[in-house]
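Students often ask what a 'structure token' actually looks like in practice. Rather than answer in the abstract, let us consider Tectonin beta-propeller repeat-containing protein, a protein of 133 residues. Its sequence is given first.
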Amino acid sequence: MSSNSLLFSINNEGKVYALSTSGSCWREFMYLGIEFKTLSAVPHFLWAVGGDRQIYLHVHGLEIPIRVKEESYENERWLPLEGFSGRLLPTDRYHFSSQDGSKDRSIDSIRLPSMAWQWEGDWQLELTLDGQP
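Now compare that with the structural description of the same chain:
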């Protein structure tokens, strides 16, 4: 076992603790107050199931980026005398939605999964759909 290996444990409150094989005390693994139910680990990777039934992944000791592409689609209504407008009817899709229109995806409401994540860049406008302007 290398000198920087970690052993992980969950207490009865769902908090994760780590013990370095070169250390002598357990340290709480800070993760924004999420209560975890189970966890598993292999070198450099720790994954857990939270009390919210979501799966969480932590990569440590590697410089491998994990990227997730977030998309939000702006929906507008064509008004013959005005052109496209953000004034939608109650039966229309959300102004900003998922691709199928079923979920509200306003850019301000899209959050990073945790403080350990960071945005890679600013939002970019894609002005084509399936290669068509």
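One point worth highlighting: The two ends are 57 Å apart (CA to CA). Ask yourself how you might have guessed this from the sequence alone, and why that guess would often be unreliable.
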